[in-house]
Amino acid sequence: MPSVSYVALTGNRDIDGLLSGLRWGTTNLSYSFPEYGAFFDRGYGWGEPNNNFEPFSAQQRAVVRQHLNDIAAVTNLSFSETGERASQVGDLRYGMSDYPGTAHAYYPSSAGNGGDSWYNNSGRQYDNPGFGNYAYLAVLHETGHALGLKHPHESGTTLSYDHDSMEYSVMSYRSHVGASLDGYRNEAWGFAQTLMMNDIAALQVMYGADFGTRADNTHYSWSPETGQMFVNGAGAARPGDNRVFMTVWDGGGTDTYDLSNYWNSVTIDLRPGQWTTTADWQRADLGDGYKARGNVANALLYNGDTRSLIENAIATESNDTIHGNSAGNVIDGRGGWDTVVLAGSRSDYLMDGTSGYVTAEGFGVLDSLLRVEYVRFENGGAADSIENIIGADDFRNAIGDGSKRMGALWVDGAARGRIEAWNDTDVFAITLQGGRSYSFELRGLDLLGGNLADSLLELRDAGGRLLAINDNHRTRDAHIDHRIATDGTYYLQARSSGGTTGVYTITATLADDYRDVAGETTAPLGSIATGQSRRGEIEAGGDVDLFAVTLRAGQRYVFDLRGTLDGGSQPAPVTLELWQGNTRIQAGTTHALTGDGFLAFTAAQAGTYDLRASFASAGQTGSYTLRAAAGDGDDFRDTLADSTAALGMLARGQSVSGSIGKSGDADVFAIRLAAGESYAFDLRGRGAGAGTLGDGYLELRDANNVLVARNDNGATRDAALEFTPAADGIYYLKARGVGSSTGSYTLVTGVPDDFADSRADRSDPVGALVLGVGKAGQIETAGDADLFSVSLRAGTWYEAVLQHAGIQDVALLLSQGGGATLASASTLTDGSLRLVYRAETSGSYNLLVNGPSRPGSYQLTVRDGLSDDHPDQVVSGGAYAPLEVRGAATKGGIDTAGDADVFAVTLSSSFSYRFHLAASDGLDGVLELYRGNGTRVARGTPSDGGDVLLDLSPATSGTFYVRVASDYQTSGRYELSTISAARGKLDDYRDVITDASEPLGRFDGPIESGRLETGSDRDVFSLYLSERTRYTVELDGSGIQDAGPQFRLVLIHPTGREVVQTVDRTGTGHAQFDFSPLSSGTYHLSVSDDAQVGGDYSLVLRSKIVPRMAEIDASAPITQPEQDLVFG
């Protein structure tokens, strides 16, 4: 199976509400359709392969392929179909079973069931998936789970109330917003036909976005009679009952929605995440009186990339409404009275033309409106006619002119306007802050395309008093720089200086408070000295403020920079650097949580240096405070406000070392905590052997520096506290000593732990077990372990049972005194673990519950004596653990004299089967096969060492029962496995190299064994041979009771040619040859019997390294000993 990766939350609820936290670690996945339940491993999932299994039909497979193609079109995933064999299956598998009752799928996992989905068989509701029905949606829904999507209502982040419906996600249980979770209410053909917008966004976060899909100029249309979509004229799938309910993802190009073949009024919306309505009769009925809010939704932008926008629209001959987007749109209203809706306000656009062809220039793009009668602005109220918009004066001529609208301008914004007559004036209102400097520009001849030849700009206060005027700033544009005294509303008046008319752009920006680089003269140079602080502004994206600082040689200095974004108190990551002239001397560090900048520097030479302060993101603006101090070498700041040392940082599961250097010293660390999650913090010094701090004290404070938890005496004299925050956010841990206590320490973060992880872990107690009494516990995090002690008596058998709730890859291990593992548990059919052990000596033993992959709760019970793990007899209606054909070996034990274990296995009359019982610990095993009516059909007894081989070719298919018992009242452990082959062809190894129906033999030990099941059988093995080595291959078949076997050994070169062939003509059952390969590689060895007797045999491979001639020491003999080698 491919690896699995974890997915971090994005902060976007529309995406995070669908993230399970797991995804595949590759974008290349395979899928397959199993033909037989026998192809699944023993103990698979919830037993789906053994519960009325049925393979997918051709129709169901076609739907899977369509869904995977559609998913690959919106992500960077690629899918390849593979045929199912016992040795090869797909990463995603699709099958029918009576478990589940509806349908379910497994999340991405390295386990054998990861990525598999199952659909109820007996109910038949999934038999006929069609474009837009429930079965079609169900396959898409379960495939979403298989790729890592969860239900939006489940724990963790959820989709918002107004987006938790099928209109936004196929993973939702709700047909419409506000619906209950007890079942879909959609009409028969009213289900989503594609991934919806939030599904696409979530999958793209996990696997990337495919901008190569329909990246050319794509034309989309739909049929009003059938609902079929056409892409560049090619028809896609035809839905049932003329419904259209989908989301469109387009990778690039200049694309068009064309609804000109509809005769009704339509709504076309080109904005991401919005809906186009083709026709009311094509909207899906979602039940409870609700219809889908539209027919075609646009996918959301991936990371703001506008390549996926649909740029153009063609409407109908009726009265239509078309919403534009941020691209340059070409919108054709055709007939009727059509309205185009544009973003922003009327003042954001320069419009020209007539109702037949109008251009609207705004927000940096040009929209072309053909045959459109009305325009409405999202921030501008009711629609207005094209004639009114084009012909009227755009802005009022004076501040008090109430007959026309006031222009609106904002800091770092721009507005477009037109001087329509020689005496026209346009007035704009703007809100400004006192104490800040601003720059205002009126551009008529610049590169933005204006044509106002000679412009004049005035700045007036709220009472209309003139504050500044300019009519010629460089070229013939106008420019004003002015420092505002008080907060309030101000007015900019734009007009022509020479009686000209034309188009202009007016802008307002913050003026720079400090120069950006050395030598700049347009802004002052800042300065700072030790013990001082400076406040400043980053007025525009990319702004840098420069401060001169004089340093003495040999003195250590520290500089602290903390920023706040405009519009609130949100901290912003800053960048702090130290320069001298044009050379950067040192870059400071930026705290990953708070964004604070910190720089410590010891000057080698005295002189004047420059500190450069900026925001880490080029597009951010806001304020900051810069502080300078003489550093004393403290490792971490003492308080949250302290600027003389760095702020420490921690995350759950991490640890950090520090030192309390003197009385009064403290160290502060920032950590991000999530609401509702529990955290544990340990300050470990001398008490835990993790430092020299004699008596530690630990505080936890919130973002406002309010104390929320503290501890001054944890285990020994260290400090420990646990905390569950009510709100997300950054918190601060403060470590110090009690009184005059100083020294080093380690600060550890994690989750509260109930029991010690190991014998060396002294931060939590070792659990104490009492025989027969269950002990509850918790694996709090992946990688956690819990240690228990229990007293056992020599010579007594004990049984430990671990029942758990979904702890992935859980293990139960027994040891004594910190030594090696004495016993490990096996997994029972119900998922619990059972460990059996006979104590060698009396004393205290340790049981370790290990949860390496996933947390969960459990109960551990130890009993003296053994309980029976499986039924002893075959009885009608009994419950038996399943035995998997070609699955992993089933491990068990005959615990007492007279005990037996019974398993159920499904066999087909088309196959032959071999059951292998490998016994140990003194067990003489007996293997019996029964029909469902209790009739015994076969019995096998030990051949040697307790092993039993039993072959069966059943006359009829069905459920059989395998009973493991013992001869001579013995007990012990066993492993039971099963293989199968086509009827009459049961074979341990393949006959020819290319025969994939049987396994290829490999050398997995010094001596390899096999069996020629028939006289004409042949076994083929692979083995790797190295050059400069002499090999001897020996075959021993002397144990065969029949007379006269003549074994033939053939060695085949990697190129396929035979290089050695030898035959035993003596009939003794022995064959042998020597071989020295000229080159290293994988060879094949064929074993057959010319006398066609067949039987068991063993192989031994011996080798001797042959040195090159130049390496031979003529004065000494070659003493390299002959040795048996293991090949595989």
From TrEMBL:
InterPro entries: MetalloPept_cat_dom_sf, Peptidase_M10B_C, Peptidase_Metallo, Serralysin-like, Serralysin-like_metalloprot_C. Its main location: secreted. One of its GO terms (cellular component) is extracellular space. SMART domains: ZnMc. It is found in: Secreted. It comes from the Bacteria. It holds the Pfam family Peptidase_M10_C. One of its GO terms (molecular function) is calcium ion binding. Gene3D superfamilies: 2.60.120.380, Collagenase (Catalytic Domain) (3.40.390.10). Keywords: Repeat, Secreted. The keyword Cytoplasm does not apply. SUPFAM superfamilies: beta-Roll (SSF51120), Metalloproteases ('zincins'), catalytic domain (SSF55486). One of its GO terms (biological process) is proteolysis. Transmembrane segments: none annotated. Residues 20-179 form the Peptidase metallopeptidase domain. This is Peptidase metallopeptidase domain-containing protein. It comes from Teichococcus deserti.
